[in-house]
Amino acid sequence: MFLELKAQATSILKDAIQKAGLEIEDSELYFETSSYADLASRAAFRLASLYRQNPKELAARIVSAIEIPDGSYIEEVSASGPYINFHAGRHYLDRTVATVLEEKEKFGCGAPKDKILLEHTSANPNGPLHVGHIRNSIIGDTLARILRRAGYDVEVQYYVNDMGRQIAVVSWACERFELDLSRKPDSAIADVYIKANVELDKNPEYIKEIDALMEKVEAGDVRTIDSFNKAVSLAISGIKETLLRLNVVHDKFVSESTFLKSGAVHDIVERIKATGRTKTDKGALVVDLSDYGFKKTLVIQRSNGTSLYTTRDLAYHEWKAGQADRIIDIFGADHKLISGQLRATLNVIGIKEPEVVIFEFVSLPEGSMSTRRGQFISADELFDRVTEAALEQVETRRPETADEFKKQVAEMVGIGAVRYDIVRVSPEKSTVFNWKEALDFEKQGAPYIQYSHARACSILEKAKEEISWNSSAEIDPSLLVEDTEIDLIKKMASFDSIIDLAARELKPHVLAIYARELADAFNQFYRFVPVIAAEDEKVRAARLALVNCARIVLTNSLNTLGIAAPESM
Q: For a Cys-Cys bond, which of 199, 213, 457, 561 suits 168, CB 3.0-4.6 Å?
């Protein structure tokens, strides 16, 4: 709805500027939200520099030329100094309520757009996911959901490292140590991987065996490939379980060995060589990207002729470029250099570059994590710990309910708290996940938003029981005139613009902040305005419809964040 409001404001302003005998580019209208209006334009500042006139006088001149067409969402346009302020009218408010009730789960969806291939998580299959990995998963999954709601056709992929050095160590470990298959498979793999690294540190001569395994895989040795595949499959099966619990689903798991077997890795190396940028450094083949601002060369082939993860990743990106209109990668800050080199190399050979979202790391108060050293708290352990704490809260708040209900709500609240607390922080900022704070119902995190949704459901359920409320009955939205009612309607109306902004800037935290603000607007409305207790029957019906609207938009917001929307808590 807000996007339509902005489109109308844009059209009205452009016409007025033209009538005032002025010219300006659409990109220079400079619309922004304002505490004084629903939309404000700084166009007069730009026009002042173009025409060397006073911006305040220009703003007044433009406003005097404004004509608002019939049926517009804009009710009034005024000048405040050099700013041109647009105020929405009653039609905008009434239409928002009607549209939410009509479109329901489709409210906030954009028109169909291009296909996007988004890769996220892609953690090495040498153990379970830990909290350091799941920021990647949560950012990636939330972005995919946002982009889909914005209208994009999104395919989500996990790039499986099934032949690198770490996998060679895992394969070697599986032959050397017994796997405890009574454990979750990714944890069993981690156990032997950690033991193997201890052994390799003690006896460096075993590293030759690891190198030999890597050479055998690249040479196509069937037995070695099978041992790699077995280990990787075990780890990935456990990782999938963890992701599913986090409400994260990938459309496709793509193995990097695919591109070695197909010859794509060999082909891309030859094409890079043909650019004249390669040279030999201590036997390894490297790419000079100094003119792209990289002092460090990119190694694409070891001295023994084997490829690297990066080489295979280049071939993967060439394949991805043919699968979609846009490619998006979610990488941790430790991939900043290599992702820049990857983009530059793709540019050199004329392949479409990916858009890259770099995120800083998330840690626990306990400190940093390393699978190799065995110093990590797995995501599974974190989820168990958080849901256990959530269960304690549910038992305190709802002691009369059945155990099954308590467990279901605790899982929804616990996983929601993890997802929200991690995604609410802008990707480029590092963060510490404090599960006690994340579960605080008063801190306006996921439990606060979920509880607001449950409250809306409870109000509507009570209305059905006490006054036989019918959600399909006709209502008059124009009766919603209280400040908190108008604030709530306007907050709901901005949902489409929030989705649009988050999708354009690839910033999922924008939606997380919005969801909290929406919950706050709903709670303020319910705090100050009687709903079921309203004396006037028509006003009561309109307010119940507004509660239903809030429930719908809260559901849509939580679903897009990948967080469950419980009807009772």
A: 213
Q: Left if phi > 0, otherwise alpha if psi is -120 to 50, otherwise beta: which for 276?
A: left
Q: Which domain holds residue 40?
A: 2-88
181 band by pLDDT with thresholds 50, 70 and 90 = confident
- Can you give 239-253 as a three-state secondary structure string? HHHHHHHCCCCCCEE
Number of Cβ within a 10 Å radius of residue 14:
15
Domain end (from 88, 112, 131)? 88
Give Cα 72 to chain centroid, integer Å. Answer: 34
Angle at 142 between CA 138 and CA 145, to 5 degrees: 145
Residue 169 belongs to a domain: yes
Asked whether the CA dihedral 531, 532, 534, 538 is positive or negative, the reply is positive
Q: Exposed/middle/buried for 429, CB within 10 Å: 0-12, 13-18, 19+?
A: exposed
Count of CB atoms situated within 10 Å of the CB of 301: 22
Q: Is residue 552 part of a domain?
A: yes
Q: Which amino acid is at 50?
A: L
Query: pLDDT tens, 387-419?
Result: 998 999 899 989 999 999 999 999 999 999 999
Statement: residue 439 has pLDDT above 90: no
Domain tally, the chain: 3
In this prediction, residue 441 carries a pLDDT of 67
